[in-house]
Specification:
By secondary structure, this protein is an alpha+beta fold. It has helices spanning 23-32, 38-41, 57-69, 72-84, and strands at residues 3-9, 15-20, 47-54. It is globular and about 30 Å long. It starts with a strand and ends with a helix.
Length: 85
């Protein structure tokens, strides 16, 4: 089962980073469900801007932690590179 690390853009233009094994379901939860993260619940709607695929949860979580340590400018560069490709 693949795992994903992702970046969401919230309605207030802030970024949220998370990891999941079901990207579509998790995006739905962030936008519609009571079980979505509190951070995104108060900043809906959110838009998926970037994701990476990993073979294990451990690798996905490690990348999540790595992305969270990046400055906003670097996160935006990742998002913009993905748009070009």
């Amino acid at each position: 089962m693949p795992y994903f690390t992702y970046i969401l853009e919230c309605t207030d233009k802030t970024l949220y980073i998370g990891a999941t094994n079901n990207l579509e379901k998790r995006l739905h939860e962030h936008n519609k469900s009571k079980s979505g993260a509190h951070y995104t619940k108060i900043r809906r709607p959110v838009v998926l801007r970037y994701f990476e695929k990993f073979p294990t949860l451990k690798k996905s979580r490690a990348r999540e932690a790595e992305l969270k340590r990046l400055p906003r400018e670097k996160k935006l560069e990742l998002i913009n590179i993905k748009k070009i490709i």
